[in-house]
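Hi U.,

Before I forget, here's the chain from the pilot set. I'm dumping it here mostly so it's searchable later in email.
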Amino acid sequence: MGSDETVKLFAAQLPKSFSEEDVHKVFSPFGTIVNVHVIREKPSNLSKGCAFVILSSKQEADAAIASLNLIKTIPGMTTPMQVRYAEGEAEKFEHKLFVGMLPKNIDEEILYSIFAEFGEITETVIIKEKSSNESKGCGFVKFTSKSSADIAITTLNGKKRIEGASGALIVKFADGKEKLKYFQSPQQYYQPSPQSPSPQRYQSPPQQYHQSQQYDQYDQYDQYEQYEQQEQEQYEQ
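Structure:
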């Protein structure tokens, strides 16, 4: 992933009187502004006090976050701005994969072994139920390089079926929404492959994989995060 790729930021705690031009002035000191989109109420078209800002590079986006987030308070506001990567943006630079159609009895070590041949792994996580601690049949794998993640997707997605799973593996870049979309309609993610090879087992990996975690950040949203999620799909069209 080149360092010059554009990055979309989410900015909150903006005055509701702010236009795109006003937001542009706040972020322009940090680099080239590709686009600004103020999130508005429908049908009144009144601002919700938050916006998307696309900067031309990760370095510029990081500089804006470091200088503005919880630091700068816009005149007329009582609390400082919130500035962060928009949903799915951080994962582009983390080489993080969402993995679905895993058998319920899989653990982090087995998940690691499935992906280890494609490159160095820094994290594996199995998503589990809060109450029972049972696997939900999906998880995350994070590589140190994008090329490793690309090869894993090409090799495994819709092609490899793990023993005990109900279908072929779903392997995609994590974008912040994959968990939600997977639980809504997992069958949309893959074309079943009845001739998928049996799973290969690798030697136990080093202790780099993480213990099971509760990945609930996709289920918990404050007010501004709700605004962001509601706008994301329409904004990307």
